[in-house]
Amino acid sequence: MPPTKGIYYRKPKGLLTMSSAPFDFMQVVRLLESEVSGFQKIGGAADYALVSKLADFRTPSAYVIVPQENARPNPTGNSMPGERSKVKQLVTVTFGVVVAVRNFRYDKGQVATQDAYLLIGLVREAIMGWTPSLPLARACQFVSGRVIDYDKDTLLWADIYQTQHSIGKS
Fold first, then answer.
1. What's the CA gap between 156 and 82, in Å, rounded?
2. Residue 43: other Cβ atoms inside 10 A
3. Average pLDDT over residues 118-122
């Protein structure tokens, strides 16, 4: 996917598109929208932050959150003062998908629990093995999943995934 139109930086020899932007989590949102049906809402971190209590989540819903990017050091060698060296680095991106579902007690809602597991499984199937449209990107891998909050009506489940891409210029 090409960079967003209109985002550029100036360099003495002309105008170039950015190659070091943070991971575009909207790629994951679009992936889930196209491959997983059954959600009332699929959003990002800003949408997730707007919800102040469990009862306010529209269920079922999913929220993509990018908590961390870590780059591997890449020695540049010697360079002259005032000059800019070409640096290319591999970046590991760790992102999460929070799924909000109805939570029913086991004795009354076994089918509802199975529905929650089904949605979480569909999210995993969509993301695992998918490769983002980024330079030198690697397929996404599942890292972990767990309940992050719940009450008698709503359950929040978070899965963590990792991928890798390259930033900078060589």
1. 50
2. 20
3. 94
Within 13 A of 40's CA, how many CA atoms are on the CB side?
A: 9
**CA gap 161, 124 in Å, rounded:** 9
* 77 pLDDT tier (thresholds 50, 70, 90): confident
151 band by pLDDT with thresholds 50, 70 and 90? confident
Cβ contact 79:71 at 8 Å: no
Residue 90 CA, chain-centre distance (Å), reads: 17
To which residue do tokens 């109805």 refer?
102
> How far from 12 is each of 5, 50, 86, 88, CA to CA, in Å?
20, 42, 15, 20
Measured CA to CA, the distance from residue 88 to residue 75 in angstroms comes to 10
**CA angle (71 as vertex; 70, 73 as ends), nearest 5:** 140
